[in-house]
User: Which sequence fits this backbone?
């Protein structure tokens, strides 16, 4: 069983103020300073330690690719959201994970925030099957397509364009913060759901490409997945 998931976040301004040199700046100026002092990348996007979770969406799928159940959460109470995520992950004992840059962002973030709220994560998340760099049950599409960093890392949106599937991604980067400030938490979860379905579609294509599933199975699952993705996108218009 696999859990395809994505997490949406905003900067943890309270924590950021504790660690930067000028904590009394307004939020937008604080982000500029934090990107200079804390970011390790040219984009200025802050590392996972400096974010807090406001939404997550997960899709349970069978090993052969058949989707079973979508679940999600959005809200201000991050501790509640983490508890709901951990409860969801306890549904199955030996689950795997599928994501895009989950190793680099989502999974470290979940660990940091669990520590902040003094919560215990499902033991499975620290199991060798999940932690092993080349795990076959913790599938990061960025690793899969870049050959674990030997090549460049692909954007999810570009993977969609490559296979002819439009991933609209109605909110990217700082747009999530803008939506959060406008109290559009339901819309943020909806965007998160689109990302999860996009990840699932790319994973299906990859499984077919490398010969893990037959053409018949792929075409059946992919047709339904594309239909669901279009339905999600239509709902956001």
Assistant:
């Amino acid at each position: 069983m696999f859990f395809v998931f994505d997490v949406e976040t905003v900067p943890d301004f309270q924590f950021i103020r504790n660690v930067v040199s000028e904590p009394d700046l307004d939020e937008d100026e604080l982000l500029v300073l934090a990107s200079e002092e804390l970011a390790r990348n040219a984009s200025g996007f802050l590392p996972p330690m400096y974010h807090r979770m406001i939404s997550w969406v997960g899709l349970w799928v069978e090993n052969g690719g058949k989707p079973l159940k979508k679940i999600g959460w959005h809200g201000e109470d991050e501790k509640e959201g983490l508890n709901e995520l951990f409860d969801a992950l306890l549904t199955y004992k030996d689950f795997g994970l599928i994501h895009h840059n989950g190793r680099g962002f989502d999974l470290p973030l979940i660990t940091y925030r669990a520590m902040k709220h003094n919560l215990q994560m499902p033991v499975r998340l620290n199991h060798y099957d999940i932690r092993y760099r080349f795990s076959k049950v913790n599938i990061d599409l960025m690793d899969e397509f870049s050959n674990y960093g030997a090549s460049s890392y692909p954007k999810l949106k570009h993977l969609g364009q490559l296979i002819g599937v439009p991933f609209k991604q109605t909110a990217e980067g700082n747009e999530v913060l803008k939506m959060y400030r406008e109290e559009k938490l339901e819309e943020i979860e909806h965007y998160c759901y689109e990302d999860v379905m996009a990840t699932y579609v790319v994973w299906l294509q990859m499984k077919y490409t490398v010969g893990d599933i037959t053409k018949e199975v792929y075409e059946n699952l992919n047709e339904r997945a594309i239909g669901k993705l279009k339905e999600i996108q239509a709902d956001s218009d």
Observations:
- The chain has one domain: 2-235.
- The first strand starts at residue 2 and ends at 11.
- The chain has a mean pLDDT of 92.
- Residues 2-235 form a domain with the Nucleotidyltransferase; domain 5 fold (CATH 3.30.420.10).
